[in-house]
Amino acid sequence: MNAPGTEDAARQARGLAIGLHLNLDRGPPVDPGFPREWRTVDGGLAGARVAGLPADVVEAEALAQLERLERLLGQAATHLDVHKHLHRHPQVLEGLSRVARRAGLPVRSIDADMRGALRARGVATNDAFVGESGETAYWTPERFRAALAALPAEGVTEWMCHPGHLPQVVTTRYAAQREVELSTFLDARSREALAQAGLQPTDYRVLTRA
């Protein structure tokens, strides 16, 4: 919500199931009251100091980013997650959980410990999680089939993915890999494999309806 092109992206995404990808790592804060002592030298977000952010600061920034998302989209977010999984830090998780409870939104969990911590705070979350980004593309056709075979027998599993085209403006280590993932998920054989496994693609709204 604080990156270049946010408004244009929101226009293109209207009508889709969109969650807040909370950014505490870079760029200017959305909350005008974000404390100066937690900003970087150029006035940006906490960056490497995120682990020490007080829960109150996280809560205020998460709420500001969520409100901006819903204003730009003209619809409610479906869930909350955090760039670089920074809610693995206890204070970030606490601040995010407060906003999630207030908004009645699920939060992405990436492991059993985070899942337990969220549920202990009264926050809905996914039952399992698969996905990563690295030097090579994560979602190749081969890994897609292997992940299908290894899925739990029940529950909601998030498949985190980064499909897209080569970035034209920003620099990122995950670039050409995005096109591999896009090809994997658009392949008709992937849809066929899901159907054969008896799996139903969904989004985080399934947790708020439960």
- CATH topology name of the largest domain: TIM Barrel
Strand content: 5-15%
Q: Please identify the top-level CATH class of the largest domain.
A: Alpha Beta
Instruction: Write down the secondary-structure element order.
Output: HEHEHHEHEHHH
**Quaternary organization:** single chain
**Rg value:** 18 Å
Number of domains: 2
Low-confidence runs: none
Strand order of the largest sheet: 1-2
Q: Could you give me the name of the CATH homologous superfamily of the largest domain?
A: Glycoside hydrolase/deacetylase
| Biggest pleated-sheet summary | 2 strands, parallel
- The helical percent reads 40-55%
* Alpha-beta content class: mainly alpha
Mean pLDDT: 94
Counted beta strands: 4
- In one word, what is the shape? globular
| Span of the ends, CA to CA | 28 Å
InterPro entries: Glyco_hydro/deAcase_b/a-brl, YdjC-like
Organism: Corallococcus caeni
Cofactor: Mg(2+)
Protein name: ChbG/HpnK family deacetylase
Structural overview:
This is ChbG/HpnK family deacetylase. Its cofactor is Mg(2+). There is one protein chain. By secondary structure, this protein is mainly α. It has a two-stranded parallel sheet. A two-stranded parallel ribbon has the order 3-4. The chain has helices at 6-13, 55-73, 90-103, 112-120, 141-150, 176-186, 188-196, 205-209, and strands spanning 20-22, 80-82, 128-130, 157-159. The chain has two domains: 1-125, TIM Barrel; 127-210, no CATH class.
Give a short overview.
By secondary structure, the chain is mostly helical. The protein has helices at residues 6-13, 55-73, 90-103, 112-120, 141-150, 176-186, 188-196, 205-209; strands at 20-22, 80-82, 128-130, 157-159.
